[in-house]
Amino acid sequence: MVTANEVRKYALGQIQAARQRGERTITFTALDISKGLGLKQRFPLICSAIDAYKFLDYASVILIKREGPKQSTTVRWVFDLRR
Fold this sequence. Notes:
- This protein has one domain.
- Helix content is 49%, strand content 19%.
- The protein has four helices and three strands.
C-alpha cells in the first residue's frame, strides 16, 4: 500500500532530476505520478500528498500554479525549483 510520504518521495525524485538538469521549473500531473508509481485510482491520495504545505517544505519548491479539480487525473502542478 502506497502512502502519502511515498508519493511525496517519488515527486521529490522527479524534482531532484529536474534540478540536476538545470531546470528552473517542473510541471507534472496526478496521472504522471500515478503511472510512475504504478497506482490505479489513487488520485485522492496523490492530490492530497502534493497539495499539502508539507510537500512544499519537503521538496524546497514554490507552487507557481495548480490547475484542475480537487482530485483528478488532470490535476497539474507547476513548481519553481529555485527555492
